[in-house]
Amino acid sequence: MHLFFSEDINPDSLWIEPGQEEARHLLRTLRLKKGDAVFFTDGKGCRYTCEIYDDNLKSCKLKVTSISELVEEKKYTVHIACALTKNPARMEFFLEKATETGIDIFTPVVFKHSERIKFNTERFKKVAISAIKQSQNLFLPTINNVTSFTEFVSQSFPANTLKFLCHQEGVSHLQPLVKPNKPVVVMIGPEGDFDNREIELAKKASFQTAHLGSHRLRTETAALLACNIINLCNV
What we know:
elongated, 8-stranded parallel beta sheet, 29% helix, CATH 2.40.240.20, 2 domains, 5-stranded mixed beta sheet, Alpha/beta knot
């Protein structure tokens, strides 16, 4: 059954009034009609079974018939802090695939050698929403605004967070350093790599250095690989 998204629903909701984009997808693209059943998610782990009550595009309304599934949140979080690529489409590809496979937080970071510093948060949120609908993932990742390297490493993380900076000169591969059921933050630098001062500042902020193998990876490839390593370590 088709899955849709609305951030205006909660377990007490009896009705859903989707936005114009979702309504158009329901009624025009999929040609669903009054009485048809669909799933909705709030992006927080709930899946709602709904019935189309009003199939008018301008006044589309659905009745919540049941909460068919309530998924518990993971005991760990995957937080990828990544440089933006010169071509935005490559980062959109990363976020789409990472959302499908399981990312919880994405933070775009500006480094000394960054090729791009502008970031359209709303555009990337739409990419993530599309990915959860396609993959039937009930959790929408948090997408933070762009931040500087200094601001990112100096922020407070939960006490048990494992923090890594991945680059080719890392001491060990990331995989054996990740521990199950621990929140993990991984920083992925630009294709021009981290500046030496950034590496030192990260170490002072208790980030461990790690690598992702002997091959030189593109930024978005490294970010997706790190995300998948963390999830596989928690299977």
